[in-house]
Amino acid sequence: MARHWIVVLFATGAAGLATADVTAQTVAGVGTFKDALSMESVGAVSISPDGATVAYTVQSTAWEENGYDSEIWIASPDGEPIQLTRTLDGSSGSPAWSPDGRWLAFAASRGDKNQVFLISPRGGEAFPVTDVEQGVSRFAWSPEGGRLMLVVSDAAPEGMKARSDLYGEFAFDDEVPPNAHLWVVTVDPRGEIAEARRLTEGDFHVSGFDWSPDGSQVAYVRVPDPGLISSAESDIYVLDVATAESRPLVTGPGSDGSPEWSPDGQWILFSEFDRDLGSSYYLNGELARIPSRGGDIEVLTRDFDEDLGGATWTPNGIRLTASHRTARKVYTLNVASRTMTEMALPSHVVGSVSFTPDGRTMAFTGQGDSGFSEVYVTRVDVSTPPVKLTDMSSQLDGWMVGTREVITWKSEDGAEIEGVLHKPEGYDPSRRYPLLVVIHGGPTGTSRPVVNTGGVYPITHWLAKGAVVLEPNYRGSAGYGEAFRSLNVRNLGVGDMWDVMSGVDYLVDAGIADPERMGSMGWSQGGYISAFLTTNTDRFSAISVGAGISNWMTYYVNTDIHPFTRQYLKGTPWSDPAIYAVTSPITNILQASTPTLIQHGELDRRVPTPNAYELYQGLQDVGVEARLVIYKGFGHGITKPKERLAANWHNWQWFAKYIWGEEVEIPLEEMVSTRERISSGEGGR
Hints:
Layout: E1 4-10, E2 13-14, H1 33-37, E3 41-47, E4 54-62, E5 67-75, E6 82-83, E7 92-97, E8 104-108, E9 115-119, E10 127-128, E11 136-141, E12 147-153, H2 160-167, E13 180-186, E14 197-198, E15 205-211, E16 217-223, E17 235-240, E18 245-250, E19 255-261, E20 267-273, E21 286-291, E22 298-299, E23 312-314, E24 317-324, E25 327-334, E26 339-342, E27 349-355, E28 361-367, E29 374-379, E30 387-388, E31 403-410, E32 416-423, E33 433-439, H3 459-465, E34 468-473, H4 482-485, H5 494-509, E35 513-523, H6 525-536, E36 542-546, H7 552-558, H8 562-569, H9 577-582, E37 596-601, H10 610-621, E38 626-631, H11 641-659, H12 674-679
Parallel strand pairs: 1-38, 33-34, 33-35, 35-36, 36-37, 37-38
Antiparallel strand pairs: 1-2, 3-4, 4-5, 5-6, 7-8, 8-9, 9-10, 11-12, 12-13, 13-14, 15-16, 16-17, 17-18, 19-20, 20-21, 21-22, 23-24, 24-25, 25-26, 27-28, 28-29, 29-30, 31-32, 32-34
């Protein structure tokens, strides 16, 4: 009988790991794990009305607080970036320029509920412009700039405190938080806080909105409640701001959302999905328009075979984003011809996008295959290249991050599969390398050929150690069209394994991968596929299962998104137990032989912990080497830096043992990271 471990990490530290920062150098050519997790990254962008300045967020790691801090910076093509906010208690985000460009509004908690603040782009102290008891979850300037529309949650139902005092804390299953509604507040640049006026009432929840061009109306999204599943029943209403009266615009079965007014106010663009057509998880949604006064709906994107991102309707056309294989691009939608034209940009992956009101200038975040995401500004429909405003990639100077390329192979059933192959620096085609397969979640996620140092898998360090890493875009991945996303319907696990193993075989046959030294890992759906590999193949030397599903019946009765399973497997455990069995890793637990690390958040509602315990117990019963780590206080993701650091070490230790035959001791002493040595003047690598 093999040995087994169960490790429990607490939010304040780690049992067996102590509470000290783990900062030891692990491999030459890169910094420490702590260095990797300390890399700063850019987030949302917002371009000024005149197109001269871009505001954007930068996230940094706050190790002492065991969290992440987001602050707002501004930059222009002819100057250095400047940090604009320094929120000491909490983060600042969601930057939004006033229509005259004199002010930047942003959201910050600053020790209390989230409120909206104003700051001059020239600097100075920020001041609050809202004082709402429940805090503000969304906001937007009115077109003339004198008002802010807010989304504010209602207070807890009357009697909740009395109930808690009498009966303690309990909750009914599927009990949802209070609804949120629309409020409006007048903005006083002198810093006076005006009283907000409530605009919507009723037994529904407002999840999004958009001002009309003249500021007299607001189109908003109404759902039954804030519950995750309720988004499939969203409708669009139009509110008269002066009278606070609402009228329905788009109603009926399915999801309708993301309203966007045309510049002339005659139309409203929106996303739609007809639930009668099938699953919103793997079938395409569409963009449609409807006269703002009501009328017939016109679908505009029927011929575009992929889900579309947020749309912006400018006087120079409708701009939107969408995945295309491993890329993410910006497109222009021609309403008359219903055609999409790709915007020529140098970045392989475009993230946040912001346009000037006239649509002629755009700010965006973009990432290539050798650095981090950067902030750019460019004139639209002009041949001059975008101007880069940041230099986040300089954080990687001196790091051996290897190279990335997109490869293609045929799966067992003939489906064409793409994947991202990471190779180490100085790759030698004449030798074979240890192979580590990292499988994305979703399943409608996408692996892209980019450098990423912030997760729970130390890919960059494995490359520097001398491994190759494959990230397969298995069937179900986004970016390859609706038919491809539907290939694992009633075929979960089975078809996914075909795609992963055919990719592995491709690399072995090409002389790249060493078949005797291979490992696999993934989180969420990637964890499920890794668990399926654990019980259905002996090809790997080690596997790591992150927040993975072990039994679809166990998952179905515990998860917070029951429709996911019903729609992918086309049944319930009671109506079709056979499909639940054939797609569940636990079904073939007697075949398992691969040493398996299991990582899971204690409070995971998406893939609850019974899945982890079921797989762990099954592996114990059949004598397979296994280890279970429960990260205390976490849900579906490991969202704090210290626990991410621990997860990196757990994976590093596990694969070092079974791929490289090394016994790694996780340091218990506090050590100084490479970045800290440089900043203190002790020299670099």
